Amino acid sequence: MSFDAYFAPKKEIPRRAYLTVSVAVALLVLAVWCVLSYGGLVREDFLPTPIAVIQAGIDGVSDGSLFRDTGISLYEIMSGFILASIFAVPLGILMGSFKIAEAALEPITNFVRYLPVSALIPLLILWIGIGMAEKVAVIFIGTFFQQLILIADVSRGVSHDLLDVSYTLGASRRQVIRRVLIPATMPGVMDALRVTLGWAWTYLVVAELVAANKGLGYFILNSMRGLFTDRIFLGIAVIGLLGLISDQLFKFLRARLLPWTVQG
Amino acid sequence: MAKLEINNVNLRFTPKRGNPVTALDGISLNVEENEFAVIVGPSGCGKSSLLRLVAGLNRQTSGSITLDGKAVTRPGKDRGMVFQSYTLYPWLTVQQNVEFGPELAGVSATERAAIAKRFIAQVGLEGFEKAYPKQLSGGMMQRVALARALANDPEILLMDEPFGALDSQTRSLMQELLLDIWQQSQKTVLFITHDIDEAILLGDRVYVMTARPGRIKEMIEIKIPRPRSVDLLTSPDFIALKRRIMGLIHDEAVRAIA
User: Fold this and answer.
1) Which of A109, A110, A192, B195 has the most crowded CB, counting CB atoms within 10 A?
2) Which residues contact A189 (CB under 8 A, 6 or more apart)?
């Protein structure tokens, strides 16, 4: 491959070259970090060394604080997210396919979804306190309305011809909904859930930063108070890692549950 | 009594913005048992709307449509349909797609498998039973759609420009395949197209439609003997018919633009 060919838009490059570039950039970032921290260019209070972050990780694991806060955050996020999904998936499908459901849900959804959920946090604290229930409520409100809109769009996008051909094959309206409309929305629903799970992490951390006495957001905030920058980095890294894992999990589930969407 | 009788059908609707539109104006035509009827017309002439009325997917404003003497009021498996767009169920394999109709009708699994096997073979897709639609080409998908419609053993096959999205080589192959299947099964077919070659090649009768309002301008019997193949396209009889239909449609197209 000529050198020039690496810079043609939308052209494939060899897998080796792809991996080399990916690894090189990651190493470069690490190198810059090392130079800045070990070189003493930035004070350690602001930028910890990589070793210090790893040490903080080992300490966090050995005294159990890291697992405790991660576990609590995971529990809160899964509760809020699953709860929101349970309602948003069926309602979204209805909203996109039945004008009557759209009329009922769309105006209010469009209003609520532009309210930044962070603006509701003070109100939710006032109503429910700063415990787990409040975090679940924040995640629920933050994801539910977004999911509703995304899934309604997916449902709206199902081709009319696909439904019509089913009627001509003898399907009743119930059968068309159950056996055609719902399966047809599944890939889009999975994608919507995957995207909104990423957002849910943001809401969770915001909620925990505002007021909490446990969880990863609290872990980060508390570390800031003591100027433990290494622990702040650790908390951020754990959130990033969990996001990556959940995203991969969704990708894996999609390929497993919906094998027909994968090009064979 | 003809197999399918369309009697003085009108279709009018009012778009969200704008004036009422007369899409179909006094359409009458009969399709006999085992006949291959083709409706040809410029785009926007309402031919697809007419087919949807026959399928029962929409209701006419006035007039009647009867199949075997029974009024059409809703979709049913006695009228199988093949669309121009790809309408296979992407989450089902080729075989499951073909079995979909019989399964809804409560046919047993073994019987379904036998039906699927037969029609998959008929459209020449043996070996693809377990493939998903995403793995198929456009022509193959339309063959499955045809097999799926036939598996329901409909009284009439309604085809809405089924080969319109295919490249011309694939289209010729599909036309010959359809002729083959029709010759064997002797199904009644109502076929919509804007392709004049296709209309003459396939049809026993060709109805030429006009646009806005959609009317039947002329019915032309195609007396070219069967079996027919795409070699016909260059024969003098064929060209004479083509010239005649082109003339009819050309007038219409000009009138529509003017």
Assistant:
1) A192
2) A89, A92, A93, A151, A154
